[in-house]
Amino acid sequence: MATTADFRNGMCLELDGQYYFIVEFLHVKPGKGPAFVRTKLKNVTTGRILDKTFNAGVKVDEVRIERRPFQYLYRDDMGYNFMNSETFEQVSIPAEQIDGVEFLKEGDIVEVQIHSESGTILTAEMPPHVILEVTYTEPGIKGDTATNTLKPATLETGAEVRVPLFIETGEKIKVDTRTGAYVERAK
Fold it and tell me: What's the pLDDT band for 40 if we cut at 50, 70, 90?
């Protein structure tokens, strides 16, 4: 059991039989009345954000989570198949539980969050940045650099991102998996 004083970003709670991650929280002490904690909670299964207010000092059920590295192997009709890098055990994870799944390619290492008591998989997180090859993009026009213009590009995983005009087909670029935005050319 934890109280509202123990809240921190990334903490996992169990409320009404569902698991939630704390995205952000704020302790509020109004001039009149008791203190409270305003939180934004992300539902683990659906990904929806919930705004919830707790009175200060309220006890909540904290869920213990273990983070383990898993390697992506392949995709089939059951979902995305991963292998535990330590025990070589294989598991299948549905696409809804993987953040940034459109940037996932074979051999990538993701961090899987597992409920420590029941052993159920909660989510799988991609690394913040991945390097992918551009498989198709329209050629840029020489001299068209007056504005910060972006064009669509298809990556090796099939995902589409907006890139600057100077990026050509066959180049490797770094992509932010959280926002899906182009970061820079890969070195």
Answer: very high
